[in-house]
Specification:
It is a multi-pass membrane protein. By secondary structure, the protein is mostly helical. It is built from six helices and two strands.
Amino acid sequence: MELAPLGARVLARLIDISLVLLLNVVVNGWFVWRFVQEIEPVSREIFRRALAGESTTEGLPQASAQADGLQVVILLIAVALWFAYEVPSVANTGQTFGKRVMGIKVVPLAETEQLGFGRSFRRWNMLGLPVFLWSCCGIGFLIQLVDCALAFFDRPLRQSLHDKRGQTVVVRLAPPADAPPGSTGTPHDRIGGPAS
């Protein structure tokens, strides 16, 4: 099987992120609106002081306790939506909507094993659970970025950390349209080829 091109993987992930973001706008929109209202006095005062050239933080209004609760709810809903979108579809077919559009698929490294819910969850949790660390100076986003960037450097299977955790690899479903008949890529781009 031919490994999926990195460009197709990135585009598939961007499509999936867009769809999950759209779901969050619908489901999480009210909570985000309430959160913005709760922190608006603080952010307005910080902005006013920045324009005035003031660097002091004394006397800043405090965000309400409800803002902290709303932030937790927003993150929980975001993670739950992403989980519901990605884990069952990868477990059942090896594809999210983005992967289907790009003609790529997640498969287990050992052909004799099923992808299944457990493997799909293990694969997703390396990428999905760091969302809870987004509010910690962006540590969660940094973890996700490093996870996904590993595919650009990993050889020979181009696995991200979440692929390694789930013992999966992403493959192309069909050869490219401009490939000569019978061609399925170079031996280094195939699972089971000399580079494997």
